[in-house]
Amino acid sequence: MSDTLTITLTGRRPVQIAKSEWPMIASNHEYDGEHECQANRHERINVRQHADGRTLVYGVYSTAWANESDRRRGELLDFGEDIPTAIHRVAESMEFEPAFAECVIADLPAEEL
């Protein structure tokens, strides 16, 4: 299994990362049907963060239906940018429900007060 991953971003060229340097900090994955292996559609949003604070928020929609197309969108955030707002933007651009984005946000590491 490769340690590199190419991520499609919205409005700019894709980026290639080393997965070990950009660990996953939140995600949500849903599919139609009862069993994932039999699903025709998959929806996913992942959030990865580098040690320097940069964050990748990206979504993937894949489909097995002939009249539909796969979609990929994403954003690269600088340190300190609002991650939950970016998750909502990516979800909206992917045509995912707002509740889907909220599940990703709920999976983020807790904020210490």
Description of the molecule:
The protein has one domain. Strands 3-4-5-6 form a 4-stranded antiparallel sheet, covered by helices on one side. A two-stranded antiparallel ribbon has the order 1-2. The protein has 113 residues and is an alpha+beta fold. Helices cover 19% and strands 36% of the residues. Helix 1 runs antiparallel to helix 2.
In this structure, how is the largest beta sheet organized? 4 strands, antiparallel
Low-confidence segments, given as residue ranges, are none
Order of secondary-structure elements:
EEEEEEHH
Average the pLDDT over all residues and give the rounded result. Answer: 90
Annotation, overall tally of beta strands: 6
Number of domains: 1
For the largest beta sheet, what order do the strands appear in spatially? 3-4-5-6
Helicity level: 10-25%
- Quaternary structure type: single chain
Relative strand content: 35-45%
Supply Rg: 14 Å
The first-to-last residue Cα distance is 39 Å
